[in-house]
Amino acid sequence: MRTVAQMLRAKPNQDIYTIAPTATVLEALQLMAEKNIGALIVTEGDQVVGLVSERDYARKMVLRGRSSVGTPVSLIMASPVISVNSTQNTRDCLRLMGRGHLRHLPVIDDGKLVGMLSVGNLVKEVLAEQDEMIQQLEQYIRG
């Protein structure tokens, strides 16, 4: 089972996208669309204060008839943020995501934001681990 650090190193795009809590929801949506991502980490200085996703927008803006133009991200972001650190493993991440119905996990080491994992990243990791296990078992059976 790989660690979060190993998963982050294997990601093709290791960029971390953040936004201020005072930015508008429209600005957050534009950044997510531009970067083709589903969530942004909300930061004040070096501190992670929230996470905002397309799902937050749909549930807290669209369904309530609010305008994204003047609404600050702080009104719809998830906070406090559930996160992991680089030493945790795939199973830890999946457990947290399952319990909290989460799709994104910021990675924070010693108070510093170092990455972000999505449910898609974890599914790919689990499938790769299963493929590796199957290959090992096939080799064992063949002798």
UniProtKB/TrEMBL annotation:
Keywords: CBS domain. The keyword Ribosomal protein does not apply. PROSITE patterns: CBS. It comes from the Bacteria. The keyword Methyltransferase does not apply. SUPFAM superfamilies: CBS-domain pair (SSF54631). Residues 7-68, 77-132 form the CBS domain. Pfam families: CBS (PF00571). This is CBS domain-containing protein. The lineage of its organism: Bacteria, Pseudomonadati, Pseudomonadota, Gammaproteobacteria, Pseudomonadales.
